[in-house]
Amino acid sequence: MRKLLAAILAIMMLLSMTSFAMAEEPLTVTVFRGDPGDQPTEDNKIYKMIEEEFGVKFEIEFLAGDLDETLGTKFAGEDYPDLFDAGNSAEKAIAAGALIDLLPYITEEGTPNLYNHIKDLLPQLVNENGELFIIPNYGINYNAQIQNACNGPAFFLQKQVLEWAGYPQIKTLNEYFDVIEKFLAANPTNENGAAYEGFAILCEDWRHFCLINPVQHLMGRPNDGEVIINVNSGNWETETFIDKPYAKDYYAKLNEMFKKGLINPDTFVMTYDQYIAKLSAGTVLGMFDQTWDFGTATQALETAKMYKNTYIALPLVYDESYGHGVIEEHYLNGAVPNKDRGFGISVNCEYPEKMIQLFEGLLSDKWQKILQWGIEGEDYYVENGRMLMTKEQYNNRSDATWKMANTAITIWESAPKKQGTQDDGNAWAHSDQGENYFALMSDYDKAFLTAYGYKKPADFFNAPIELAPYGEAWQIDKSPIQDDYDKYLLIQDQWLPKVIMSADQAELDANWDAFVAEITPYAEVYTEFMQAEVLKLVEQATK
Amino acid sequence: MTVLNRKKRKPQDRDIVFPIVNGLILCVLMFVTLFPVINTVAISFNDGIDAVRGGIGLWPRVFSVEAYKSLLSDKLTYNAFGISVARTVITTVLNLFFTSMLAFALSRKEYIFRKFITLAVVLTMYVNAGLIPNFLLIHRTLKLSKTFWVYIIPTMFSCFNMIVIRTYIIGLPEALAESARIDGANDLRIFWQIIFPLCTPVLATVALFVAVGSWNQWFDTQLYCGSKKYLHTLQYLLKMKLATSMNTTNMANTSVDALANAGATKSTPVTVRCAITVVSALPILLVYPFLQRYFVTGMVLGGVKG
Amino acid sequence: MMNGAVQKSVIPPPSTKKSIWKKLWDQKYLMLMSIPVLLYVMLFNYYPLWGWRYAFQNLDLTTIKKGADWIGLGNFQWLFNEKLFWLGFRNTLAMSLINLVFGTTASILLAILLNEVRSRAFKRTVQTVTYLPHFLSMVIVVGMAQNMFITDGPINRMLMSIGLIDSPVWWLGEGKYFWWLVGIINVWKEVGWNSIIYISTMTSIDPTLYEAAAIDGAGRFQRILNVTLPGIKATFVVLLIMNIGHLMEAGFEIQYLLGNKQVYDFSQTLDVFVLEFGIQNNKYGRAIAAGMFKSVVGIILLFGANFVAKKMDEETLL
User: Fold this and answer.
1) Is B222 on the interface with A (CB under 8 A)?
2) What is the CATH number of domain B66-250+265-299?
3) How far from A187 is each of A159, A175, A181, A183, A350, CA to CA, in Å?
4) Which residue of B94, B139, B237, B256 is the best one to mutate when testing the A interface, meaning the one whose CB has the most A CBs within 10 A?
5) What is the tens place of the pLDDT at every residue in A401-443?
6) How big is the CA angle at A466 (ends A234 and A170), to the nearest 5 degrees?
């Protein structure tokens, strides 16, 4: 016991000594990230280079628990780090007055990289008072935007269904469910005797977008969250869609499929883990989702070489029989600057100029290559002017342990960065580089694309449209009407599954009417708020 | 006569049936509790990607130690383990000391302030100022943030445990303390030399409660020591590892990264979660038998009981 | 001993007339032993209660820095007018009660069964095994439970094969089952852990009592009834009173994990409500008001339970 205590005391003394010793030479910058993450190793090669060039070290705090709970204490105690990335609640850090306005520090002469980075988007990025607290961490493209595949929302279908049907073009909701139905009739179970499930709908918590978002896309709009905005009239009329008759069409279609047994009632109560497990087992034929949301399942299927069970993204719309005319799909949108997400500099920071100079330096071409590709010769090689990676080098960049020692991922993720294409034609992101992307693709996938005469999965989609001046409406901060907004979502989550599970047409109509009646007051508040916000954003952007 | 006979025979009849039934019930219970535990261990030793598919029983389907590798390859894990052991040991010792001392004082019926202090202390279990006021006290008023002591000082007393010990002391035969008092012993000596040793079973129980509570804490690290990586506790680190592994699969809007992740990840939240359970519970399980000795079989009064 | 008793009865007479100061002086060691903790709870538990003033202020993001305004009972008014608050109140109470009744019964039952085991090795094994689930995280436990209770899961298949039901029951999607599922999971997870306290209390029972009962010809059940149960009664009553005071704490993790929007009317507890409409909305004043409400209800329940125990001549907490 005494020995143990002595050992503990010794450890503690050692700790306090090391922390004193570290406070000496380079400037220690404190960092908060509103996301979980791994601490970099002591001898991380990129951080070493940053320390040599900029004279700064980082003391990083990540988040393991609930973001808002932790932020609440930080705001109350005014306990801010130098660099403050409050993750998905960053606008709260702005509202709480934790961050400084960056614009006074950004000039054409002093910080040309940053200046050029934001100058075109500036009207959209600043707030009503013309202040800019956070430079977006993602979504600012240089030269051409690269789109190899749909990474966002779409209807997904197992490739084997299309293969079985002879590679038809599936463009509409009805075609989609037809082919699933026919496939299911011919193949009720897989080779191992496990039953196929026609269509899955994930409803868990914030992932309920799988349940409530599809209608806007079926009507031919990109992802604006819960509203449809008329971009053609010039008045930007904004309306919620979930309570409209054209939304009922979709849920009635799902009800039809439910009655035919294509949809399992457990789909409305399953957790994300169960959803991923089902997808990974290869027994779910289709779903509406966003590509990044089921990456684990894709990985599991590929590892098991079940390529035919992996999914292809399809941009579906209502066909003419629904009475909305001919609808053109616009699933892919222009690059969206990730407004109010990334590092801000806190009011407690004593050397804001230095931090701006750090961002400025890291945004240079030289440092962007180091941060995104690594060191030439070690992490990638150049052949005929193209930046390339061996399979090992490529895989390293997503290996968590390797990243802790060989990348400055934490700083890179939250700092301003270049995306799109470099001046010499190489991609800024190593994973966007065509050669790297296609090197990873399986033979099955190559054959699948060839059967359609396509070069990349994104060819199933129309080219991205120009981003509307308000951005994408899901980014709008709803905190001023949070109480009503929460209830607006809750009512959808509670009622839509009931509508889908209705026993007959009469019950469906009754459920739908009850749903509309209950949601209308909240939908009105929400519509009014969003309309005002959209107009405000449009006005700012066109100033 | 018949009545007497029945009285004498019945217990013997039961003594054959009862132990068997009892044993059976307990065996079923063991199976029901053990299955999920073994299942957790099995998943933790399974390949991450394969485990996502579910359906693993009592043995790993594709054996792999990747989940453990990703936890144990980090040098900070060992430092965090040391901090966790230190905070647990120190907290347990101090907490036991203060808690049992007050329990003894409040077990004395003649103590004038007994009622008042009991009330004052018991109410603390039900009044809670909330997260922010508590944070401000520790962070701003006491300035304990970013020090090791933030793990110790706010957890030196536990009312629930005090009541448990007090109830136990009240249940002890009064005569023991009484005779000592007559021999001229003061309250301090009675407590230390007579009551304290008699309380071993309950103290072992309470020590277990305190130790497990302290060991499992991670939120205080988040609040007060998040930026000091050498003050991170094991639970905090493990919680972070789990959160990180879950996060890599759902990075919204980072079109660049989602696809970059395909291919190299060998552990998944499913396996990491189970490996974390094993790593964090194992030290407690190893210490457990030493404490269990005292409260399962009892040593002072219950030692001779069959 | 006899001597002692005599002496004791001799000494008191002057002391009963003793001044309060003399009495205090006699109890100086008791005071010495209680002062540290008293100061400690004053600082760590009562001093932060100053923060309760926020319950009467409109504390949120924008006011947190420059200071919030007093709004009287505004936060409480909002809470009490909110349907979801009362729904949370009902669900909290229901799940706590189920948990308290079944959790306590099961852990006492387990302690008694273990106490009757003669083989020490078996006893320790069972005890160790049953407390293991306490260390499984709720995520893991709930995940397993969900796989058991899905429509084509083992529970439905078993019930159908023995003919108790004709078609699968939608356990996870119908609100009426939710409270009981939470109860089952909680009892399963904590029964071993919660029985520890009763097991350790049973060690304090004087073994001669069992011998005396055996000599009197008491059967095993009579011994349990007349010796074991009275032996743990004080602990049981005290824990019961404490737990009744905690009825407002139904937790939130298990409801959060096991619940879904289909059963929301039965799964949402006060803590979930506070998280969703207080913390995540940054209405800190509201969250603190709800916390205060919980404290007040808890204290009322506590005093009520303590009062009843006193009336029944049982061991009391206060």
Assistant:
1) yes
2) 1.10.3720.10
3) 14, 18, 10, 6, 67
4) B256
5) 888 899 998 899 999 999 999 999 999 998 888 888 887 788 9
6) 105
The answer to whether the CB of C151 falls within 8 A of the CB of B57 is no
DSSP letters, C78-104, are HHHT-HHHHHHHHHHHHHHHHHHHHHH
Please name the CATH architecture into which domain C76-311 falls: Orthogonal Bundle (1.10)
Chain C touched by B12 (CB under 8 Å)? no
The class of domain A153-331+476-541 in CATH terms is alpha beta
* Residue B201 to residue C291, Cβ atoms within 8 A: no
Whether residues A65 and B239 touch (CB distance < 8 A) is answered with: yes
pLDDT truncated to tens, each residue of chain A (543 aa)? 555 556 665 655 555 544 444 445 789 999 999 988 889 998 999 999 999 999 999 999 999 888 998 999 999 889 899 999 999 889 999 999 999 999 999 999 999 999 999 998 898 899 888 999 999 998 899 998 888 888 889 999 999 999 999 999 999 999 999 999 999 999 999 988 889 999 999 999 889 999 999 999 999 999 999 999 999 998 999 999 999 999 999 999 999 999 999 999 999 999 888 898 899 889 999 999 999 889 888 888 888 889 999 999 999 999 999 999 999 999 998 888 888 899 999 999 999 999 999 999 999 999 999 999 999 999 999 999 999 998 889 888 877 788 889 999 889 999 999 999 999 999 999 888 888 888 778 899 999 999 999 989 999 999 999 889 998 999 898 988 999 999 999 999 999 999 999 999 999 999 999 999 999 999 999 999 999 999 999 988 887
Mean pLDDT of B283-303: 70
Name every chain C residue with its beta carbon within 8 A of the beta carbon of A97.
65
| Measured distance CA(B100)–CA(B166) in Å, rounded | 8
Residue A45, classified by CB atoms within 10 Å of its CB into exposed (0-12), middle (13-18) or buried (19+), is middle
Give the chain B residue nearest A433 (alpha carbons). B256
Contact C261 A208 (CB under 8 A): yes
Domain covering A26-144+337-379+403-424 assigned CATH 1.20.140.10 in the classification: no
B-to-C residue pairs, Cβ atoms closer than 8 angstroms: 275
Instruction: Select from C128, C133, C220 the Cβ nearest to the Cβ of B11.
Output: C220
Nearest to A35 among B82, B247, B253 (CB): B247
Which of A92, A274, A493 shows the shortest C-beta gap to C282? Answer: A92
A138 to chain B: which residues are within 8 Å by CB?
253-256
Chain A residue with Cα closest to C257:
A271
Bridging pattern class, strands A311-314 and A153-158: antiparallel
Question: Can you give the residue ranges of every domain in chain C?
Answer: 76-311
Q: What local confidence, expressed as pLDDT, does residue B153 receive? A: 94
Radius of gyration of chain C (CA): 26
Query: Which residues of chain B are within 8 Å of residue A296 when distances are taken between CB atoms?
Result: 49, 52, 249, 268-269
Interface test with chain A among C50, C53, C58, C61, by most A beta carbons within 10 Å: C61
In chain A, where the domains are located: 26-144+337-379+403-424, 153-331+476-541
Burial label, C43 (beta-carbon count in 10 A; 0-12, 13-18, 19+): middle
* Cβ neighbours of A271 in C, within 8 Å: 143, 146, 257
Long-range contacts of B279-287 (CB under 8 A, 24+ apart): B279/B68, B279/B71, B279/B72, B279/B234, B279/B238, B280/B215, B280/B216, B280/B234, B280/B235, B280/B238, B280/C135, B281/C132, B281/C135, B283/B85, B283/B215, B284/B211, B284/B212, B284/B215, B284/C135, B285/C132, B285/C135, B287/B211
Q: Do C37 and B102 touch (CB under 8 A)?
A: yes
Compute the distance between CA of residue C300 and CA of residue C316 in angstroms, rounded to an integer: 15
